Amino acid sequence: MELREPLRRAILEAAVRIDPAAANVEVIIQETPEDLPGDYGTPVAFALARLLRRSPLEIADQLAATIQLPPRFVRVEASKAYLNFFVDPASFLIGVLYDPLKFEETGHRVIVEHSSVNPNKELHVGHLRNVVLGDTMARLGRWLGYRIEVQNYIDDTGRQAAEALFAAAHFGLPRDDSKYDHWLGELYVYLHQELANPERRSELEPGIRAVMHQLEAGERRSEIEQVVRAQLQTCADLGADYDLLVWESDIVSGGLLRRSLELLQASPRCHFAAEGKYAGCLVLETEQVLPGLEDPTLVLVRSDGTATYIAKDIALQFWKFGLLDGFRYQIFGEQPSGRPLYTTAPQGEPAGFGHAAEVINVVDDRQSYPQAVVRAALELVGYPMEAAQSHHLAYGPVLLEGQTISGRKGITISIDEVIEEAVRRAGELLSSKRLANPDHLARQIGIGALRFSMLRAEPARRVDFRWDSALSLQGDAAPYLQYAAVRAAAVIRRAEEAGLSIYNAEFLLLGEAEVTVAKVINRLADIAMAAWRERAPHLLAQYALDLANSFNIYYNHRDPYGIPDTRVLATVGGQGEARLELIKKVHTTLSEVLSLLGIEVPQEM
RNA sequence: GCACCCGUAGCUCAGUUGGAUAGAGCGUCUGACUACGGAUCAGAAGGCCAGGGGUUCGAAUCCUCUCGGGUGCACCA
Hints:
Elements: H1 4-18, E1 30-31, E2 40-42, H2 44-52, H3 56-66, E3 73-79, E4 82-87, H4 89-97, E5 109-113, H5 125-143, E6 147-154, H6 159-170, H7 180-195, H8 198-216, H9 221-237, E7 244-247, H10 248-253, H11 256-265, E8 270-272, E9 282-285, E10 297-301, H12 309-320, E11 329-334, E12 340-344, E13 358-364, H13 368-380, H14 384-388, E14 390-395, E15 398-400, E16 403-404, H15 415-430, H16 438-455, E17 463-465, H17 467-470, H18 478-497, H19 512-521, H20 524-533, H21 538-555, H22 575-597
Parallel strand pairs: 5-6, 5-13, 6-7, 7-12, 13-14, 15-17
Antiparallel strand pairs: 1-2, 2-4, 3-4, 8-9, 9-10, 11-12, 15-16
Helix pairs in contact: 2-3, 4-19, 6-7, 6-8, 11-12, 12-13, 15-16, 18-21, 18-22, 19-21, 19-22, 20-21, 21-22
This protein binds one RNA strand through helix 2, helix 12, helix 13, helix 18 and helix 20.
């Protein structure tokens, strides 16, 4: 329910009435800290004191006397120089409980690119963070009414993919029954052990080269597809899905690269180097745009005529904003979620992908520089608005028990393995309970716990993956949220069985305890918008904890004699019915937030 | 060397655009009608918000310097 704006306007009107010079003052509204009087407050008197050169206490008193309270507020009080407002519990609760909280579809087109894992081996816990962050942003964006297109970039011409395919053919191991990406990954790692020996390296190198050429020509795409399908299975297990796979080779074959280079060459910073270190290369001079490089000259096209990855990244970003076109598309398959998945394909048909107004690239923070180059390139070719809407959601690395992940040193854990263990641990905890569907529940809990562990901290922070904390089933973790939702559902079910009806609800019998919960419920819209704006999904995760916590506190509340005083059942005069309405709102709000986080709400636990 | 990120309780983390007394979880200690579902709740202990200087009525938050940790700076991706 929109509550701040009316209050802000009322405060501003009162201020202007006191002194017209106050017209431009910034009015900040916040919830009052616990144990202090009032529900919402503002420190606006401080700002006015400076502006009007008068005492803030005096101004606060005068504002309190002057202000015309907006609906749902009954009282205002100056406390020190703060102005504190008191809501009327009944009308405030009705306002919060029956606010539909629906964001209008805006048509604002946003591309969220995430995952983008090299197609040469299985996903590990480092990728886990990427997938979960990206998927959560996509869910949030959709909920906010934006038209979200989720893309996954497939680097099918890179050396890593070539090495994996080479290894698979060269070492000729029979295909076992493990998942294809795991099988391939093992051969890839084995190849790297061989490559450590310089003699072996020179023996094997030509074969790898040959595969790279084949990949560039698009000849072995079906093998890459097989890896991608195996990898996508893992993402689906995590609850992530996509709209479009973008293949690197299609950027070249579709002419996007060529067109973007033409655009770039209009800029004086982009030119062919005729001589010197970069003779024969098309280069971009970045020193004016971006500091921090030892050598600010960036190669876009090598002297052998092939493009560097950054050139393709720039082309892709140009395409995302509709500066150029050239892709063709076809269906790739249907995902477990039901969403169809498309892919770029040379033999496909044109379709309406791209043309975004905003782009979010979920990429780890080691790539901050290239991401900045991509943004700067938009500016260089005359698209400053697009540059401003070009976002990099940068996240820190995932460590494994304090160590840097390294496939070659064997310091790595696959997501598939982690999911299995998470589900196993959840199942163990359930074994003592009588449940209708323990296996399904164990998955919901295990995967929820995993996702939450990747979401709870700020993206910029590096996270240390430890089994005990990542899979923690107690404390500030997903099961706490799920439990609160299940508990709320149980209360609702019991109350309905008892025949409580909304028509008997008497909101005048509700008070401070209910208002406290409702205030938390009412934060969601602001939190969701901030999480989107700041690209900070952890705000949602933290909010979910706040909401579940405030409900649990309410549920367990006792009067000074130790008697539960917030019960739904065993009350009279419509109080229980009104409380039930609050609990229903807690349940829908919590379910909403959990679905944004990609955490399922179990039927039982 | 240059550039970017991080530093808050023993540990892992929160802290809306600068606002009132810096909050959780884990761990430690003590409790809660034998339950509208105890995977919960109440309480105790635990802080020079890395350190110095500055701006401000007000700083964990902004500026600056220092220290500690991480990352980036290829005709790789």
